[in-house]
TrEMBL record:
GO terms for molecular function: ATP binding; ATP hydrolysis activity; ATP-dependent protein folding chaperone; unfolded protein binding. It comes from the Eukaryota. Keywords: ATP-binding, Calcium, Chaperone, Endoplasmic reticulum, Glycoprotein, Nucleotide-binding, Signal. The keyword Endoplasmic reticulum applies. Residues 218-261 are annotated as: Disordered. It comes from Anisodus tanguticus. This is Endoplasmin homolog.
Length: 640
């Protein structure tokens, strides 16, 4: 072009483009997400400017803050257009080629080691991903302060900028025109584009419209020389009208013949691809249960694509979920220094390997958005591991958008976000338990409905699926240990096969009882026969059964609850009120001394008179800080 000015890409950018062009990376899809994200940024900018100066928005179509995608199937040209802030000539030169972002070389390095292009947006070089699918790209842009320009490059180390004298005026904003490579033909397909927008950009805060084709039947004037086919149609039409024949009598033969015929025709119209007002931006009071459930399903489905390496796991999740409602959700808006919106869901079922993979995979199911732009769903800094079973989304207004993932991960506000998310998650679980509890059900009116029945038993269901996560939380999260302990459920010697809580246990404690009694073992059936329980049963004390292997570890962390200590009844230290103990100690002194000497000190630590037994003459007890017999068994089986 006559007026074109030529520029060379900055060396770092040039290297990046080489890598992209020669990349065998299979996930080329990301280019669309990057372009939409840039368009959305540009729209955010003009919207921001308009806050202080309404004039900048202009009038007419210019005020429509939207993104348009158009496809020319024949020419294989895909264009993405926005009515955002646009770029001046200088912006085009700097932003798209001559000034490498600080993240550029970091990204190039990363690419050479990991090859994971998916991160491109986080290094501030997302635009160049267009060369994954295009060999020639034009960027047409109009900024309020400048004329309309075209930037173009075939990725051959150089780009050109010309004043635009031939394209239609944009008014304001940017159109990126991709001349698709032969191998990228799959993107010249409306369905593919729709799928990608759904997958990556569904929750962009501006309307995304696709110039979509539509097959319609059109009535056109019937021809004189009609084919037999059409004649048949006309006959059937007139026979339908038979009943009206008398009224039509005045009409001439000619008028009775149909004057039109139907033809299939392709027309185009704008089709909105996203739900602009994302659920989490709405007022929780206005979102229906159905909408939450649908949103939940959309999250579950998207995951299928996003974790290809875990396709099976995620697939099975999605299958289980598809016609199931989440157990509960929490939708809230955090304000203050750190602002974010979040929706958390408890899935109806735990994935089959939730705990199997607990220690080696660290997969969060939370998506992170920053100002409506999807950042990542492998961002594990948002929730502690034990809450990884939750699904949902966080949209932060405080986190910066254009920094690397590493910088994001270290961002101060993450700690605050995490803290609040944990609180809300635990609140949600507590409420689930409260709604289900017998007390609250008793209080309710009898008429109250199916909804309550649905809630009945839901905590047991939760406990069954995710109870272990709560226990892992008690072990790992000292700050929230007490909150988590409240959520514990277990059976006891008196719970009659039902689950009970620590609060309920405490409310039933005898006035003479100081500690919370528990016993650990492989099964309730086995424990019920334990000699350690004889005396406690006889005296009517309640004892908790802990029968999950993780319970042994759990009880090393859970020292007390509401000022009550935990006492393993198979360990030293069990004190039952018994006035005769002192007397007995005296009179059996000789026997215990002889016994201790006979067994020798490396076999037993001590021999003592005990008040814990009723029928059994003697038991071997573990010392207070030693492993319980069951723990010995677990440790033994692990070292073997
Ligand atoms: P990032 O979006 O992280 O800044 P990109 O490589 O995606 O990095 O884009 C580089 C720059 O080009 C952007 O920062 C922006 O200044 C400019 N840009 C890209 N696309 C557009 C657009 N549609 N409208 C306005 N400016 C744009
Ligand atoms: Mg970008």
């Amino acid at each position: 072009r006559a007026n074109a000015e030529k520029f060379e890409f900055q060396a770092e950018v040039s290297r990046l483009m080489d890598i992209l062009i020669n990349s065998l990376y299979s996930n080329k899809d990301i280019f669309l997400r990057e372009l939409i994200s840039n368009a959305s940024d540009a729209l955010d900018k003009i919207r921001f400017l308009a806050l202080t100066d309404k004039e900048v928005l202009g009038e007419g179509d210019n005020t429509k803050l939207e993104i348009q995608i158009k496809l020319d199937k024949e020419k294989k040209i895909l264009s993405i257009r926005d009515r955002g802030v646009g770029m001046t000539k200088e912006d085009l030169r700097k932003n798209l080629g001559t000034i490498a972002k600080s993240g550029t070389s970091a990204f190039v390095e990363k690419m050479q080691t990991s090859g994971d292009l998916n991160l491109i947006g986080q290094f501030g070089v997302g635009f160049y991903s267009v060369y994954l699918v295009a060999d020639y790209v034009e960027v047409i842009s109009k900024h309020n302060d400048d004329k309309q320009y075209v930037w173009e490059s075939k990725a051959d180390g150089a780009f050109a900028i010309s004043e635009d004298t031939w394209n239609e005026p944009l008014g304001r904003g940017t159109e990126v025109r991709l001349h698709l490579r032969d191998e990228a033909g799959e993107y010249a397909d409306e369905y593919k584009l729709k799928e990608l927008v759904k997958k990556y950009s569904e929750f962009i805060n501006f309307p995304i419209n696709l110039w979509a084709s539509k097959e319609v039947e059109k009535e056109v004037p019937a021809d004189e020389d009609e084919s037999i086919d059409e004649e048949e149609t006309s006959e059937s039409t007139s026979s339908e009208e038979e009943g009206e024949e008398e009224e039509d009598a005045e009409k001439t033969e000619d008028e009775k013949k149909p004057k039109t015929k139907k033809l299939k025709e392709t027309t185009y119209e704008w089709e909105l691809l996203n739900d602009v007002k994302a659920i989490w931006l709405r007022n929780p009071k206005e979102v229906t249960d159905e909408e939450y459930t649908k949103f939940y399903h959309s999250l579950a489905k998207v995951n299928i694509h996003i974790f290809p390496s875990n396709a099976y796991v995620v697939h099975s999740l999605a299958k289980d979920f598809s016609d199931d409602k989440p157990m509960a959700w929490s939708h809230f808006n955090a304000e203050g220094d750190v602002e974010f919106k979040a929706v958390l869901f408890i899935p109806p079922k735990a994935p089959h390997d939730l705990y199997e993979s607990y220690y080696n995979t660290k997969q969060s199911n939370l998506k992170l958005y920053v100002r409506r732009v999807f950042i990542s769903d492998e961002f594990n800094e948002l929730l502690p591991k034990y809450l990884n079973f939750l699904m949902g989304l966080v949209d932060s207004d405080t986190l910066p958008l254009n920094v690397s993932r590493e910088m994001l991960q270290q961002h101060n506000s993450l700690k605050t976000i995490k803290k609040k998310l944990i609180r809300k998650a635990l609140d949600m679980i507590r409420k689930l338990a409260e709604e289900d509890s017998d007390e609250s059900n008793d209080k309710k009116d009898v008429e109250e409905s199916s909804d309550d029945n649905e809630k009945k038993g839901q905590y047991a269901k939760f406990w069954n699926e995710f109870g272990k996560s709560i226990k892992l939380g008690i072990i790992e999260d000292a700050t929230n240990r007490n909150r988590l302990a409240k959520l514990l459920r277990f059976e006891t010697t008196k719970s009659d096969g039902k689950l009970t809580s620590l609060d309920q246990y405490i409310s039933r404690m005898k006035s003479s009882q100081k500690d919370i009694f528990y016993i650990t073992g492989a099964s309730k059936e086995q424990l019920e026969k334990s000699p350690f329980l004889e005396r406690l049963n006889k005296k009517d004390y309640e004892v908790i059964f802990f029968t999950d292997p993780v319970d042994e570890y759990l009880m090393q962390y859970l020292m007390d609850y509401e000022d009550k200590k935990f006492q393993n009844v198979s360990k030293e230290g069990l004190k039952l009120k018994d006035s005769k103990t002192k007397e007995l100690k005296e009179s059996f002194k000789g026997l215990t001394k002889w016994w201790k000497n006979t067994l020798a000190s490396d076999n037993v630590e001590d021999v003592k008179i005990s008040s814990r037994l009723a029928d059994t003459p003697c038991v071997v007890v573990t010392s207070k800080y030693g492993w319980s017999a069951y723990m010995e068994k677990i440790m033994h089986s692990q070292t073997l």
